[in-house]
Design a protein that fits this description.
By secondary structure, this protein is α/β, with parallel strands linked by helices. The chain has 17 helices and 20 strands.
Amino acid sequence: MTSHVGTEARPLRVAIIGAGPAGFYTAEALLKQKNLVCSIDLINRLPTPFGLVRDGVAPDHQSIKAVTRVYEKIAANPNVRYYGNVTFGQDIMLSDLIPHYDQIVYAVGAQSDRKMGIPGEDLAGSFPATIFVGWYNGHPDYRDLEFDLSHERAIVVGNGNVAMDVTRILVSSPDDLAKTDIADHALEHLRQSKVREVVVLGRRGPAQAAFTNPEIKEFGELTGVDPIVDPAELDLDEVSIASLADNKMAARNVETMRSYTERISTPGNRRICMRFLVSPVELIGANGRVAAVKIEKNALYPSDDGSLRSRGTGVFEIIEAGLVLRSVGYQGVPLKDVPFDTRKYIVSNQSGRVTDPESGKVVAGQYTVGWIKRGPSGVIGTNKADAVDTVKAMIEDLPQLSGIDDANRDPALIQRLIAERKPDHVSYQDWQLLDTYEIKTGEPQGRPRVKVTRVPDMLQVIRQNKAM
């Protein structure tokens, strides 16, 4: 009689596509299952693991990056292997993986951004905030981009935490940033920046802002920076006032912003100007570049679900600016041969089980987790509970899982296939060599690390250190 999948005789073979927080938390949840024997392979596009913890978390938020210690312990488990510098859908196809894995999990995040849908959005000088984040964090896809910081004013559209991050980086003291792991090319460029003021635009009121209280409080702690809030924009409507009773974070945010109205500005300081109840309606260009933003004053109204929405009032204003960063949401991108919901921009799924978007039928053995499962919501820790939810579905499905052919169950088979397709793939031990190199390079400068920001350079560092 054939043993069940997940036993010593037939370990459960799982491939996780993506090695960010969602991928690592999925591996952790699987490893914690009692009486389950599993073999897990993490397949990642970049040589470097940890996803947004490395490439998305702001460099001045080192405490948040400490979560990688948890991921390091997961990667150290002998039943977990890491294949970096391997692109799913290009180097390795779904048809390659299906014969070798009982279950496949997609954990690739939301890799694109939403557009504002207004005239002039594609002018030079207009960017998604996500690209700017990738640039200053040394993401290989964005490190060679150029941002014109020769103008005195920049505009950030949106007031979630990403908007707060890019605003803070634009006005932070370069000397303070030099103590972080910000990419060297970004630090050098920011030292030459002429930006003196960042205007942050929120379409709804201060009580509806999406940023967390630590983010808005940081504005008041920056060296040589004055946070500016118009007291009139903190004059809340009755519904907003009532909502603060049930939303402690929003209440603290409003209280923090009220404290900024009482501060005396210092001549010569850089400025963060928080604006509320306004929306950009057009980017105005000059010689093909952003020169100004036309904004419209909004008013709040209650929607059918009880939330407050915004709509334009026909009152307009023009703000001169040479750089616009939009932070109005992320969205997922389709994976080759994987069912995709084109309305929600996620992998089509029910409770983590991948489904056909037309029939709703479950695709056996395929799952999803994180932002590509539920959309871009929550913080890094949110992915832990989300991973537990997906793994619960995976375990529930095991009794009906016939499993792959035992002739394909040997992990060495996929190892050889990946080595053939991608000879310069990166193991976790390879990554540790690069990690050690970056940390040692940062030590003389008093920095947590100096990032290597180009893939060929990463591979060269690994090769050189392997030879030592």
